[in-house]
Amino acid sequence: MALSFTVSTTIPAGKETIYNAWLDSKQHALMIGTGSAIGSHKVGDTFMAHDGYITGTNDELVPYSKIVQRWRSTEFKESDEDSVITVTFEDASGGTLVTLIHSNLPPHGMQYETGWVIHYFEPMKEYFGDGR
User: Fold this and answer.
1) What is the mean predicted confidence (pLDDT) over 34-44?
2) Three-class SS state of 39
3) What letter would DSSP give residue 82?
């Protein structure tokens, strides 16, 4: 049975700023503090993050509201199906409520729940908290 989880937090920036940074190569790398990322604002295009540890494809993009991506890490077996992340952005007091649902994960997939917090949400709060 495929695994799934939901994580969310408030990021101190507007929806448009966070959405655009998520899909932009340079801004994505800067907001999560890694050396390289490749992003795109087009459905069907591929992406890469964390220096190649994460790869996938944009499945649905609703400007400033939702991003749906097929997602996998280098820890996935070749036989594992892609997982799916759905990221939503909602106005909230102090910024934007970012909610991430990660579904269709392989048996080892629950490790990514903590990973999203440590490697995405915490660096994003710091990055956008600097007034960007």
Assistant:
1) 94
2) coil
3) P
